[in-house]
Amino acid sequence: MNKRKALELLIAYINEYSTDTGFCFHIKFIEELNAIITSHAVGHEKEVFQILIKQFAFVKNLGIRVNEADNNEILSHMGQGSYYYSLHIQDKIVNIRLLMTFSVSGTPLFLGAFFEKAGKRVSDYSQWLPIMDERAKQIGE
Fold first, then answer.
1. Which of 22, 82, 110, 116 meets the CB 3.0–4.6 Å disulfide criterion with 123?
2. Beta carbons of 134 and 128 less than 8 angstroms apart
3. What is the distance in angstroms between the CA of the first residue and the CA of the last residue of the chain?
4. From the centroid of its chain, how far is CA 78?
5. Is residue 57 over pLDDT 90?
6. Per-residue pLDDT for 124 more than 80?
7. Confidence (pTM)
C-alpha cells in the first residue's frame, strides 16, 4: 500500500469514529500514527488497520475499562479520577502504542502514538506524560 493510500484509509477511519462515536483525535496523534504506518508498517498496513479497528471497538464498548482488553495498560493517574491509557497495535512486525484518555464526560481523546522497538522496552512513557497533559487540555472539554 502506498503512503497516500495509507493516509487516506487512516483519515477515513478517524472520520468514521469521530462522527459515529464522538471520539476526539489530536492532530499530532494523526500525524504520528501516519508516520509510523508509512515507515514501520510498510507491507503490513492491512494488519495494522484491522488491529486499530479492534482497539477502537474496545474503547467504544469498554470505555474506561479498555485496559482489560488485549494487553492494554493504564499509565498514569491524572487526578479527578482520570487515567492515561496505552493501547497496543502489535504483531510480529509492528509494535505501536496509542496513547489516550477520556474526558470528564467520557469522550475518548486520542493524544499520541509511537513505535516501540520489539522486545526492548526502550520507549519510556514518562516522556509522554507532559505531552499528553498538554494535548488533553487542547482537545478536552
1. 116
2. no
3. 37
4. 18
5. yes
6. no
7. 0.88
The grid coordinates listed for 4 are: 497516500
- For residue 118, give the 3-state DSSP assignment: coil
Residue type, 130: P
- Unique residue bearing C-alpha cell 515507515: 39
Residue 101, SS3?
A: strand
pLDDT at residue 42, as a whole number:
87
Question: Would you call 84 helix, strand, or coil by DSSP?
Answer: strand
CB-count burial class (<10 Å; 0-12, 13-18, 19+) for 64: middle
Query: Cell digits for 84?
Result: 492515561
Q: What mean pLDDT comes out for the span 70-81?
A: 76
Provide the pLDDT confidence category of residue 101 given band limits of 50, 70 and 90. very high
Cα–Cα distance for residue pair 107/22, rounded to 1 Å: 7
- Cα torsion for 32, 35, 39, 45, to the nearest 10°? 90
In order of 92, 105, 138, the CA distances from 135 in angstroms are 30, 17, 5
CB 112, CB 128: distance < 8 Å: yes
CB 107 within 8 A of CB 18: no
Overall average pLDDT of the 69-76 stretch: 87
